[in-house]
Design a protein that fits this description.
With 762 residues, the chain is α/β, with parallel strands linked by helices. It contains 31 helices and 19 strands. It has a seven-stranded mixed β-sheet, sandwiched between helices. Strands 2-3-4-6-5 form a five-stranded parallel β-sheet, sandwiched between helices.
């Protein structure tokens, strides 16, 4: 009443009354709405909100096909896909109506399911963005408009709609298409990304460039989801975008998944490892907030023009009392949402309005999606079937190779549990990868000593440094490729202060189907350049357990333990090939502390059974004695190569040594090998600049080459990007399998002729 009566009094008095009425009005309306069971009583709605429809109990398959419900397996898709068949590029979608777009989404979802069931790959992230992908390609015009996927394992539907449907059978295979966006693969891949949180920076850069170059259109869309918004780089970019007022659209794909798998027991409970996830899930999409915004918009239309501005103050007040302020708007973005990311009736017109808006202010469109949407086995799985092997489409059961040997990741986790059982100061840290690093296993045993910080490697390393300052023994477990993101923290916060942080680098070396964005080739090079680090690499599962125990016992500085993706060898191979003497024929389950910086000789000429080499008549002359110095799990290939060389030539004697440590080097072992052999081959599963370079540097300074009697050949991962494939295929391409080591030995000892270039050309 006070608001409306203000129109009949003087100007100054109206202003004063309006202010007083607003202050009285806001708390009353807010309290009323927050207390009300529903906002439907205040304003009619043409469509139910996402929150309202989410409470109806809609079956998971409803949005896949009208009227379909989850009646259990077997699951199957449409027999034909007529609309998808007609789409060879996004241009073919422009003439479709809304109903046809929905049908296209249905067909596309099953196309993704059918393709990934045959190849394996990242499944559920793509299933969650089907409708979004269709809407984006319908509204925007790629490649003139830019869509950046972050993390880009959400891109399978995008690949299918942009002319790569026929190549999906080659997904993540040698010579096939990448599992991520890749600029050289398609003009529709605006930016390549395998790591997270990069899209907002990229979109801003593209937007600035388009503006400065006076390009006709400036639509840059960053789709950031699957926990990527928890990365600090995303906030750096948002802060900059709001400050510079860069025209861009950020689509926050909020699917409630941050870590893999979400739900790992940790010190933070089993909720997603991010306060932002709780913020968006519990506050921004809370029913009072959503109903208040819907009501405020409807209420605004009922007010006289002169007082419609009050609505803005109502809306701002609502944000304050419900969510404590909208984070994204404080960063300078115009916030839209949350919106049901599977509701194309809403998404298409919203995207069209954002596309056509003349406003240069950055926009954040917040959508809520279900990871694994439309496929019940994915929706029910703890990891939502994030990354899968080939699987039975009808049941969702994955087809995995039978192996009696445990994974190296699980061996590490159980070894750490053994140490933590005896030492209460041991804690584990992971950056959103508990499943990939074994922290999920550790967390089940020690939830209060497990810390998942989300996609925040820099924070993880420095948090570990803080823990070490106070007397804890932090094991900071991060993929080798992701530790690249925390490099400055390793140097500045850990190494300079010589803090005993244990850095555990899983997925060292070549990783297989994820390809170059995930290879752990570079850690020996980039970690090796930092003083104070002790760096070790196990050759097998026994050594892995020993090195976990060594890290736990070493308090004189930071340690790095790197190990590859793979499985243990098992007792039989450890005995026959590696020469272990195993009590009762069983692999030991408890590790032993190793002397720091000391390697071992595994094989003397004549085989692993003759460690002293006394029974062998091989290698009587120095030039017939060759040695292999290996670090890490290439020791297996080195031993195989040594056996094959000796089988081929009765005069050659091959010694194989396991360095164990890159820093400090075992200089006594290296001198012994150099003095007693005519040729040395150094083998590692790392890039140029790593272990081999450290050994060569030492040998040169030690004068080992001065008399010309020692020939050395380092074997490393070559200075190229090795594409997706199996690990064996990748090591074959890198030239690091046993046959390549054998060939190098034979060439060094002049048992085979190496053709020169002129001979090859003739």
């Amino acid at each position: 009443v006070a608001l409306f009566s203000s129109a009949f009094v003087g100007k100054k008095e109206r202003s004063r009354r309006r202010q007083r009425a607003t202050m009285r009005f806001l708390p009353s309306v807010a309290a009323l709405l927050l207390a009300a069971p529903t906002a439907a009583a205040f304003a009619p709605q043409s469509r139910g909100s996402f929150a309202a429809r989410a409470n109806v109990g809609t079956a998971p398959l409803t949005r896949m096909a009208e009227g379909t419900v989850d009646n259990g397996p077997p699951y199957s898709g449409p027999a034909t896909k007529p609309i998808l068949d007609s789409v060879k590029s996004p241009d073919d979608m422009k003439g479709l109506n809304l109903q046809e777009l929905k049908q296209l989404a249905h067909e596309l979802r099953w196309e993704v399911l059918e393709a990934v069931s045959k190849t394996g790959g990242h499944l559920s992230s793509s299933l969650g963005v089907i409708e979004l992908t269709v809407a984006l390609h319908y509204v925007f015009d790629m490649p003139e408009d830019d869509i950046i996927w972050d993390v880009s394992h959400q891109c399978y539907p995008h690949k299918i709609l942009t002319g790569r449907r026929e190549r999906m059978s080659t997904l993540r295979q040698m010579g096939g298409i990448s599992g991520f966006c890749k600029r050289k693969e398609s003009k529709y891949d605006s930016f390549g990304a395998g790591h997270s949180s990069t899209s907002i920076s990229v979109a801003q850069g593209m937007s600035v460039a388009k503006k400065m170059l006076n390009k006709r259109r400036n639509n840059c869309i960053a789709v950031i989801g699957d926990g990527a918004i928890t990365g600090g780089m995303a906030y750096e970019a948002m802060n900059s975008a709001g400050y510079l007022r860069s025209r861009m659209i950020v689509v926050l794909n909020d699917n409630g998944q941050v870590s893999l798998p979400t739900g790992t027991q940790s010190a933070g409970g089993v909720i997603p490892a991010s306060q932002l996830s709780a913020y968006t899930s519990n506050l921004l999409v809370s029913k009072p907030f959503q109903d208040f915004r819907d009501f405020a918009k409807s209420f605004n239309k009922l007010l006289p023009t002169e007082v419609q501005g009050v609505n803005k103050r109502i809306d701002e007040y609502a944000r304050g009392i419900v969510s404590g302020g909208t984070l994204f708007e404080e960063l300078g973005f115009y916030y839209v949402g949350p919106v049901d990311g599977h509701d194309m009736d809403n998404m298409v017109p919203i995207l069209e309005k954002l596309r056509d808006s003349p406003n240069d202010k950055p926009v954040l469109l917040h959508i809520k999606t279900t990871k694994g949407m439309g496929y019940p086995p994915a929706e029910k799985a703890s990891d939502r079937m994030h990354g899968v092997a080939k699987f039975n489409l009808g049941t969702g059961v994955q087809v995995k190779g039978k192996s009696s040997a445990p994974s190296l990741t699980s061996i590490f986790a159980n070894a750490l549990i053994d140490q933590a059982t005896e030492d209460r100061t041991i804690v584990g840290i992971t950056a959103a990868m508990p499943g990939g690093t074994g922290m999920d296993i550790f967390g089940r045993r020690f939830p209060k000593r497990t810390f998942d910080v989300g996609i925040a490697e820099q924070h993880a390393v420095t948090m570990a440094a803080g823990m070490a300052c106070e007397g804890l023994k932090p094991f900071c477990c991060i993929y080798s490729t992701f530790m690249q993101r925390g490099y400055d923290q390793v140097m500045h916060d850990v190494a300079i202060q010589n803090l005993p942080v244990r850095m555990i680098l899983d997925r060292a070396g070549l990783v297989g189907n994820d390809g170059p964005t995930h290879h752990g080739c570079y850690d020996l090079a980039y970690m090796g350049a930092i003083p104070n680090l002790t760096i070790m690499a196990p050759s097998d599962e026994i050594e892995l357990r020993n090195m976990v125990a060594t890290c736990a016992a070493f308090d004189d500085g930071p340690t790095v333990l790197r190990y590859p993706r793979g499985t243990g060898y098992g007792a039989e191979k450890l005995t026959k090939l590696f020469g272990y003497e195993l009590p009762d024929g069983e692999v030991p389950t408890k590790g032993e502390v190793l002397p720091i910086g000391k390697g071992r000789i595994v094989r003397r000429p004549g085989g692993v059974g003759d460690v002293n080499g006394s029974a062998s008549s091989r290698g009587k002359k120095r030039e017939d004695r060759v040695c292999i110095l290996s670090i890490g799990t290439r020791l297996h290939e080195s031993l195989v190569a040594a056996n094959e060389v000796e089988e081929a030539d009765p005069e050659l004697g091959v010694t194989v040594a396991d360095a164990r440590f890159m820093k400090p080097l075992d200089v006594d072992l290296i001198r012994e090998l150099a003095d007693d052999h005519g040729a040395m081959v150094i083998v590692e599963e790392g890039s140029i600049g790593g272990f081999g370079d450290h050994v060569l540097h030492f040998l040169a300074l030690d004068g080992a080459f001065d008399d010309g009697k020692l020939k050395v050949r380092p074997m490393v991962i070559p200075d190229v990007l090795i594409e997706a494939g199996t690990q064996h295929e990748q090591y074959e391409q890198a030239g690091l399998n046993s046959r390549h080591i054998r060939g190098t030995l034979l060439r060094l000892t002049k048992r085979v002729k190496v053709p020169v270039l002129e001979e090859l050309e003739s």
